[in-house]
Amino acid sequence: MQTVDEALSKLSRSKFRSSFSLNGKDIAYIKRIGGETLRRHCEDFVRERLAPAFIPNDGKQTPFRGHPVFKAQHACACCCRGCLEKWYRVPKGRALTADEQQRIVRLLLAWIERNMNNTDL
């Protein structure tokens, strides 16, 4: 099992995954809602859009914009079950465990935090 740092390092070497970043609007939104609300949004999106064993619109359930967590999901390859399987060997066809969901949430929040700290906005 890889650490958050290892996962983020691996993702940073992907041209597609590393193309995502937060903009000023995203950062202002995050600052306005605060960390706890952001965590709840992460948890909700993961539980509702990734955790079920079967997702009718898998591969299309995560928009590319509209919420900072969506950008984090794409940047972290946690946007659909196909990406979870490819990047993290989490098989499709079974529900995510509570531990897997929390690991994804930690990864998303770490990406957001690093992205906010590495921006010049």
What secondary-structure arrangement, pairings included, does this model have?
Layout: H1 4-12, H2 24-49, H3 68-75, H4 81-88, H5 98-117
Helix pairs in contact: 2-5, 3-5
Provide a brief overview of the structure.
By secondary structure, the protein is mainly alpha-helical. It has helices at 4-12, 24-49, 68-75, 81-88, 98-117. Helix 2 runs antiparallel to helix 5 (98-117).
List keywords for this structure.
121 residues, mainly alpha, 5 helices, 59% helix, 0% strand
Plain-language structure description:
Helix 2 packs antiparallel against helix 5. The chain starts with a helix and ends with a helix. It has 121 residues and is an all-alpha fold. It is built from five helices and no strands. It has one domain.
